[in-house]
Amino acid sequence: MKREDQTYVMYTSTLTSLLNGYLESRKVSTLEDLNYLLISDRVKASLKPSILRHVLSVEAKTKKVGLLHIIWQNW
């Protein structure tokens, strides 16, 4: 959320930095990676805790973006 003491230029810069950091940490380098990441994040938000733990543990071992569909097929 934009702070009152921030200009919109500063706020935009902050949001850009946060997004770039997130995409870098998730190893996003292509539009396809971004697509998988956004969809995976949305689906993970709706999973039951036990399934989410499994998905996160598999993702942590592979460190690749967008593997939710593969994990789901193997569940």
Your description of this structure?
- Helix content is 69%, strand content 0%.
- It has 4 helices and no strands.
- With 75 residues, the protein is an all-alpha fold.
- The longest helix is centred in the first third of the chain and has 18 residues.
- It is elongated and about 50 Å long.
The span between the termini is 38 Å
How do the SSEs run, as a string of H and E?
HHHH
What's the domain count?
1
Number of helices: 4
Query: Sheet bearing the most strands, described?
Result: none
Shape: elongated
Radius of gyration, whole Å:
15 Å
Question: Could you give a quick summary of the protein structure above?
Answer:
The chain is mainly alpha-helical. The protein has helices at 8-25, 31-44, 49-62, 68-73.
Keywords:
4 helices, 69% helix, single chain, mainly alpha, 75 residues
Write the SSE topology:
Elements: H1 8-25, H2 31-44, H3 49-62, H4 68-73
